[in-house]
């Protein structure tokens, strides 16, 4: 019975997110001109609301890069980076705990073997491995949040690794947004270089982790 209630709870939240997107409740987040006007007129309270709305936007699968670009345009590079990264961390936190409270038992029942493999992979050096996943410019932020929430990974390493891993891409797109707003070609160039650097770091960490896994001795079943 509890499993059914949790499944229905998650379905209700997913439906709410769909309705929010379908009715354009979060369009302000993706429109940098409207966003800048809203923030100029509402000050600190507007900034808090945008941060929370950005958390919801990224938590239901919206691209955090778009959020960073819009906030970079509206607030400037530095403040855009900080606000968009905080919003993405809030979104990841919400998604993580929704998955842990509502989806964990369901997925453990249906995909127990795959969840066991994920738990085994992320059991050690959780922060570093989550950081690696976030740095790579591939994969789904939403899927990572959900799977992590359904796994046995601890929350603090997940949050720390995610926040640190978000920073390079958020910096890239916030600077690009700020450069677009101010017609600053140097900020655009810096953002492109940072994107390449973050991708190289992520690929390096992935290759290093893969080599360590291959170097581990395989136990003889006999």
TrEMBL record:
Protein origin, superkingdom: Bacteria
Membrane topology: Multi-pass membrane protein
InterPro entries: TMEM64 (IPR015414), VTT_dom (IPR032816)
Keyword Transmembrane attributed: yes
Chaperone as UniProt keyword: no
Keywords: Cell membrane, Membrane, Transmembrane, Transmembrane helix
Signal peptide: none
Boundaries of every VTT domain copy: 63-178
TM region(s), chain numbering: 41-59, 66-99, 155-180, 186-206
Family: Belongs to the TVP38/TMEM64 family.
Name of the protein: TVP38/TMEM64 family membrane protein
Organism expressing this protein natively: Marinobacter persicus
């Amino acid at each position: 019975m509890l499993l059914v209630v949790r499944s229905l709870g998650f379905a209700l939240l997913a439906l709410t997110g769909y309705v929010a997107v379908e009715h354009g409740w979060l369009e302000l987040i993706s429109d940098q001109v409207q966003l800048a006007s809203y923030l100029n007129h509402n000050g600190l309270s507007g900034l808090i609301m945008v941060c929370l709305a950005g958390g919801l936007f990224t938590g239901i699968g919206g691209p955090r890069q778009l959020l960073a670009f819009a906030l970079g345009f509206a607030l400037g590079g530095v403040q855009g980076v900080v606000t968009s990264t905080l919003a993405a961390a809030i979104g990841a936190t919400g998604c993580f705990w929704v998955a842990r409270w509502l989806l964990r038992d369901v997925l453990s029942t249906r995909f127990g073997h795959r969840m066991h493999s994920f738990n085994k992979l992320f059991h050690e050096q959780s922060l570093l491995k989550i950081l690696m996943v976030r740095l790579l410019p591939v994969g789904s932020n939403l899927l990572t949040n959900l799977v992590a929430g359904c796994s046995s990974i601890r929350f603090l390493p997940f949050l720390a690794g995610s926040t640190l891993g978000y920073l390079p891409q958020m910096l890239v797109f916030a600077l690009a947004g700020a450069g677009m707003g101010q017609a600053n070609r140097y900020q655009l160039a810096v953002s492109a270089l940072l994107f390449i650097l973050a991708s190289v770091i992520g690929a390096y960490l992935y290759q290093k982790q893969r080599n360590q896994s291959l170097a581990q001795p395989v136990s003889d079943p006999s």
